């Protein structure tokens, strides 16, 4: 692979890492779930985010996502659904912030397989309704699919970004589900839930009212 193509790959990987690692609704939801419900639940949610992100990646690689991104009605519908979902998460976080702090218990003790599937679905829904995810992959694939791009660029971009996606979101789940972070959450539970409620509200309103 030519040096120019390697430089392009590094640029794509760096851009994607910054986009996924920067604080956003998915990161905050995984963080809150990790501290409140434990590592397994957070990893289940992270898995849902990764699956939906890779679905957009595959559609982008096939050129379908670029076509879909030209339909303003589709992006508008995704913004509405995504915005309302974030407001629903804000409502849940706000409701939790207003509740008295419950006695400390092992987060894993309150979870079961059905609960993990719920977390997985939440991760999928949260990321699949984010229009920014579509536009990010359209921009990334414009590098892989441009004329003159090396044949290995497309799989390298998809696989490399998949590895970054798994590492970042799973990393959030693992980091914030340590004993220290769970203990810290129990001390600041209501305050943190309040902060999450505000962040989800702002993110939801931005989707619902933003022009882009």
UniProtKB/TrEMBL annotation:
Cellular localization per UniProt: Cell membrane
UniProt membrane topology term: Multi-pass membrane protein
One Pfam family per UniProt: LysE
InterPro entries: LeuE-type
UniProt entry tagged with the keyword Transmembrane: yes
Domain of life (superkingdom): Bacteria
Keywords, comma-separated and alphabetical: Amino-acid transport, Cell membrane, Membrane, Transmembrane, Transmembrane helix, Transport
Entry's Gene Ontology molecular function annotations: amino acid transmembrane transporter activity
GO cellular component, one term: plasma membrane
Residues passing through the membrane, by range: 12-30, 42-68, 74-91, 124-145, 157-184
Protein name as catalogued: Amino acid transporter
């Amino acid at each position: 692979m030519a040096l120019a193509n390697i430089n392009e790959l590094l640029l794509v990987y760096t851009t994607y890492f910054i986009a996924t690692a920067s604080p956003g609704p998915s990161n905050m939801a995984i963080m809150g779930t990790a501290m409140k419900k434990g590592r397994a639940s957070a990893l289940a949610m992270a898995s849902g985010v990764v699956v939906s992100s890779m679905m957009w990646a595959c559609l982008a690689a096939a050129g379908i996502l670029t076509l879909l991104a030209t339909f303003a009605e589709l992006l508008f519908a995704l913004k509405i659904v995504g915005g309302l979902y974030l407001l629903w998460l804000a409502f849940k976080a706000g409701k939790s912030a207003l509740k008295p702090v419950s006695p400390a218990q092992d987060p894993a003790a309150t979870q079961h397989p059905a609960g993990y599937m719920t977390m997985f679905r939440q991760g999928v829904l949260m990321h699949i309704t984010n229009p920014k995810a579509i536009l990010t992959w359209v921009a990334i694939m414009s590098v892989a699919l441009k004329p003159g791009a090396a044949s290995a660029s497309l799989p390298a971009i998809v696989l490399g970004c998949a590895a970054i996606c798994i590492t970042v979101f799973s990393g959030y789940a693992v980091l914030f589900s340590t004993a220290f972070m769970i203990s810290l959450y129990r001390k600041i539970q209501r305050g943190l839930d309040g902060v999450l409620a505000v962040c989800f509200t702002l993110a939801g309103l931005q989707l619902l009212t933003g022009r882009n």
